[in-house]
Specification:
mainly alpha; ABC transporter involved in vitamin B12 uptake, BtuC
């Protein structure tokens, strides 16, 4: 009598989803993603777009921090590089929006690799301070550039000469609807890339550096090369999220990419799960929906509790901090571990082990 999951071929053993139930979950997730924009309203589509962009940025940061063990507080600065590169190329050079996205990714990867040079000598808190310095340097450079503190207005996205804001098919249309497909197309590519990355020699080298860099170097892993590759790969994906945000919002301002953005994305991967691609998506969903839920709750109670609306921003910050502390204490591996425990419970039931 067989007990467990057995594979009789290398093909089935190396598959991304090795069991039928795993494949069915992917099919259901894809089906929901495709159907959702046709049943959601403008508000829910806006939240979905924010989740998609946040998930891409979180995966990029998780590659560096969760998988390679290089703590980074420069996420906001690297996103700013991607956003401003895409915005400037569209506004001042006149490039089509779709061409600015890969260029912004490459530019951000080069900047990320440059600021990753100190990682050979620094680790832990010292590396975090170095990346925080990168955040401040990038922000200072943007403010002192010809763009200054003024917002950069990006021209509306046009397809076949028509703005996406006005493009409609029946009752479906608007920038939230059309850009949803762009965001989730890139999110799908990012997830596939990240999942497969850690099945390769490069990805395993990243994990070896995270677990014990000295032992990895003894085994022949070139620390300097792979740390720079980790910074460049992470920054490439972070630049993608910044470029998408610039094209989606249509306005780029340095205030959107301050240290607060870096802390937000660090919280996303902590709550979602360090070293987990799916955890980055779970964390993005949680951290985008949490403040939206609190805001809606405050508005609904503002009639019965006057003055509550003024307290909502402070409540959001308090809940933000408390949530991070609770996850660090109660479930350091984040939502990904909780979901894994739920699956194990049903897989092993009625046994408890």
């Amino acid at each position: 009598m067989e007990s467990g999951i057995f594979h009789t071929t290398y093909e089935s053993d190396m598959a991304l989803r090795r069991t039928p139930i795993m494949r069915w979950r992917i099919i259901l997730a894809v089906a929901f993603t495709v159907i959702f924009p046709f049943i959601g309203n403008s508000y829910t589509l806006t939240l979905a777009d924010q989740i998609g962009i946040a998930a891409i940025g979180a995966i990029g940061l998780n590659i560096l921090t969760g998988f390679t063990g290089q703590i980074s507080l420069g996420q906001g600065g690297f996103m700013a590089i991607g956003a401003y590169t895409a915005g400037v190329l569209t506004t001042m050079v006149g490039m089509p929006w779709w061409l600015t996205i890969p260029i912004a990714c490459v530019v951000t990867a080069l900047v990320g690799a440059f600021f990753g040079i100190p990682s050979l000598r620094l680790k832990g808190l010292y590396l975090a301070i170095a990346t925080l310095a990168a955040q401040q340097i990038i922000q200072w450079a943007i403010v002192r550039s010809p763009l200054g503190t003024d917002a950069l207005v990006v021209p509306p996205i046009k397809v076949f000469g028509q703005s996406l804001n006005r493009l409609r098919i029946g009752s479906f249309g608007g920038i939230d609807f059309w850009f949803y497909w762009v965001i989730y197309f890139f999110l799908a590519l990012t997830i596939l890339f990240a999942v497969n990355l850690f099945r390769t020699k490069i990805g395993r080298a990243f994990i070896a550096i995270r677990d014990q860099d000295i032992a990895a170097e003894v085994m022949g892993v070139n620390l300097f090369r792979y740390k720079l590759m980790s910074f460049a790969t992470s920054s490439f994906i972070v630049g993608l999220s910044g470029a998408l945000l610039a094209q989606y919002r249509g306005i780029v301002n340095y205030e959107r990419f301050t240290i607060d953005a870096s802390i937000f994305y660090l919280a996303v991967i902590i709550i979602g799960g360090l070293g987990s691609v799916s955890g980055s998506v779970y964390g993005a969903i949680f951290m985008v929906l949490l403040p939206a839920t609190l805001s809606n709750l405050g508005q609904s109670l503002s009639g019965s509790v006057p003055g509550l609306a003024r307290l909502i921003p402070f409540v959001q910050q308090a809940v933000f901090g408390i949530t991070i502390i609770l996850f660090l204490i109660l479930e350091p591996e984040g939502l990904a571990k909780i979901w894994r425990d739920i699956k194990d419970y049903f897989r092993l039931w009625p046994f408890s082990y």
